[in-house]
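note to self — DONT lose this again. spent like an hour looking for the file last time. sequence + predicted structure for the chain T wanted, 304 res
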Amino acid sequence: MSATCSDTMVQNIHFQRSLTVVRFLLGIMFVVFSELSTTTAQTLTEGQLGDGLSISVWNPPTQCQDVAPLVAVEIDPDRYRFTVHYYQQDGFSGPLDIRQWQERTGHDLVFNAGLFRENYAYLGLLYGNGRSLGSKRHPTWLGLFVAEPSVDRTRRARVLDLTFDTFDEGDPPYREVAQSLMLLDRTGKIRVRQTGKRAHQTLVAEKGDGHLLVFKTTKATSLHALGECLRDAFPPLRQVMAMDGGSSSDVAVSSALRQATSKMAGLHSWLPLLDGTTLTHIGLPAVIGVSPRREQGGAKTSAR
């Protein structure tokens, strides 16, 4: 074999090895940047309102064609507590709208607690401060928001699925409870039918790290489309329940937090969506309030 031929073979071998190394490195870079992109899309820190509370607008990816951006409130239950309110239990003559509820209770955040009848009777289990507020278990709506365990040995707030989880009404393991529709369960199954009906929605989701997310739609959409989108595009979610839809879908933030946020640098696109001026608010018989735990001492209006 000539020296020239031998040199050519050696060069080809080096080229193939180099090509293999380049492909390997490109593969690693693709995986890393894909993970970074996914993580960034699901990091909700646009408006860090306190140690354990942030609000942002989550923009669904292109595969969620029927889902508009969602206001996403992320809450750490170890730093913020949840309180269920029912208008009669709180001594009011009639249901308050979401802004009135926020002003009367003083919570940093308030959202609608679930579905109710025309006479304002709540549909499903509802507990406040460990006491039943007069409603009965709904036989087919199997989502259960629970918070403030009676014995502090578990997570301080959860989304339970009564298909898999038990709840003892005689000896409730949580002091704050609200029952509603299960939307997306831990197996990835969507638990509502595809009816084509579109409306504004409020969702409560549990993440794998124990944080809760309250989602508020910015445009009318179907529950089934929301379930598909969150299942496929928001992997950290463990399971999701739907609180109520239509004109009952409501979230309010305290004026103190809005003012603190407005002084922070940057554009906070969620502010106009929760300032209470863009939607018509109806009376809600039951709401859930979110406030800093006392041991957090002053986290209420810290804007970071």
